[in-house]
Amino acid sequence: QVETLKAKLLEQAQEIGRLRSELGGTDAEKHRDLLAAENERLRQEMKACEGELRELRRQQQAPCRDCAHLQENAGLQERLSQLQREAEEMRAKLAELDLEVQQKTNRLAEVELRLKDSLAERAEEEERLSRRLRDSQETIASLKSQPQQIKYIIKTVEVESAKAKQALCESQSRNQYLQEQVGMQRQVLKEMEQQLQSSQKTAAQLRAQIMMYEAELERAHGQMLEEMQAMEEEKNRAIEEAFSRAQVEMKAVHENLAGVRTNLLTLQPALRTLTHDYNSLKRQVRDFPLLLQETLRSARAEIGQAIEEVHSTNRELLRKYRRELQLRKKCHNELVRLKGNIRVFGRVRPITKEDGEGPEAANAVTFDTDDDAVLHLLHKGKQVSFELDKVFPPQASQEEVFQEVQALVTSCIDGYNVCIFAYGQTGAGKTYTMEGTAANPGINQRALQLLFSEVRSKAADWDYAISVSAAEIYNEALRDLLGKEPQEKLEIKLCPDGSGQLYVPGLTEFRVQSVEDINKVFEFGHVNRATECTNLNEHSSRSHALLIVTVRGLDRSTGLRTTGKLNLVDLAGSERVGRSGAEGSRLREAQHINKSLSALGDVIYALRSRQGHVPFRNSKLTYLLQDSLSGDSKTLMMVQVSPAEKNTSETLCSLKFAERVRSVELGPVSRKAELASWPSQEQLEVTEGLPGDSPGTVAPSGRGHASPSPGQLSGRAASIRRKLQTSG
């Protein structure tokens, strides 16, 4: 079997050599020779075309140097270069085909080498197995021959002497050893037989691999023949197409050149005309920069003059606009005064640390730089604009705010009733605007200081008496902040003189003569006012505070008697119970505050829509402010808003309410003055109830506030009276 396998391997090697010689020496060489011949032919054709092109260039170089048909000539040259590129591409394809043939030849050689290596390895393995088989057979043969001699010796030694017996024993032991060796050799023989079987299996596998290699060689040979045939056909087709295309293009080139020759003779006059035009254009281009600079210089001068005229016109228009704006505001204020409208000022407090940090503490309120009566609120991504009579930004001081309201304050000296009230959500700064601090007082204290200043300036002709009352509305109950019993509930009643005005029986009224008296009264009233801490304000006002300043005057020269009242109201802040965290008594306070503010909104709505019935009596607050809201008073509302993003809903409600209040017309205001015979100073004091009594003596107000009897004053009222007497 081994010899047969060797013979088959040798036959396969001879067949592979034959195939290789046939493939390399016939088709591949012929194909390469054909491609080389074709390449040489194309190279000769290209050289001939290049010679013709050089000849044409020499013929046309002199007359066509400045010819307008140079572009056509360049196009022909480009087409010729394209033909040359196609020839180069054909050469590249030919080189690729040669490279592919070489690669396939290398693959075939590699397969042959692998086959030879496998055959050599199998031959060596078979040779080694044959040697081991021969050695095993020789060993078996030698072992088979030895036991016969030993038996013979055993039989022959049985009749010999003791010395022979000893030799016999030794021979027996040796025979046993040889038998063991024979067993071992038999075991080795079995192993050799197994190895022979495995080698036979390996030979069968090799034969299968050889058959697979043969099939692969046949398939590769067929594929190679098909690919070479296809490449040969493709090459021939490409060469024919290139040759025919080159012939057509060369024919077209010759025709174009003939046309160029005929056109050259006719285009020479046109060329001279074009040359002349070109020279004239060249001169114009040379002179163009100077002309351009001059034009730009004049244009810059004209533009600068126009800009200056526009600037001067804008300045004049801006001056006229500001003048008209001031005039419009003046006319508007006068119209508001004549109509009796409620004037509305807005004040935006600054962002504080209580507002927190992050997006909720962002500023949502902006102002109009050209109009100090307009502000803009950014609510839920939309900007809402509001127009009031005056808007104070966060940086506005208490002095600036009071400068806008001091005209109203001084009008009460002339006998007018004035009402200033602060409105807004809790924590918006109402109490700060109205009362302020000791170092920076608000409208209340500044108003009284202004009144004292005006009284001193008119002391030469007028006698004035200023009295102060303080009350609060807490849980719909009216309480006297300066009385003996601050917790005592008071009632609002009509004046018995039939004038239709309101008064509060039992409301304490103190006469003040200096700023020190004012400070003591404010301090006493502030102690009695109800304030508590909520989630929205550390010192939240839980009641509506009302400061009533009565100014009575007498002109000594004419006997003219005037009575004016200044009502300064600090409303409690509207709040959402869920945000303020009010519980228990705080919750009840918040409910009463919101109810009274809602009643105020109903009154404003009724006044604005000119309804026949105005619900003043729905709340103690609106009932007490009836004189100020029914057309017999100059009224100003100071709406306080917070700029924080988290308070935009409350700010929007406050500003909408302020716009509704601003549209209410109360009618013209009447002055409270009467002309009487000239009295003496003692008569004036007796009439006013202010003779030699102490400054703390309680007197009835000009609008009907009944005062308690002297016997009712004790406790805190008596202590305040003693302080005022000492200061007097």
From TrEMBL:
GO terms for biological process: microtubule-based movement. Residues 677-728 are annotated as: Disordered. It comes from Spizaetus tyrannus (black hawk-eagle). InterPro entries: Kinesin-like_fam, Kinesin_motor_CS, Kinesin_motor_dom, Kinesin_motor_dom_sf, P-loop_NTPase. It is found in: Cell junction, Adherens junction; Cytoplasm, Cytoskeleton, Microtubule organizing center, Centrosome; Cytoplasmic vesicle membrane. It is a peripheral membrane protein. The gene is Kifc3. SUPFAM superfamilies: P-loop containing nucleoside triphosphate hydrolases (SSF52540). Residues 719-728 have a biased composition (Basic residues). This is Kinesin-like protein.
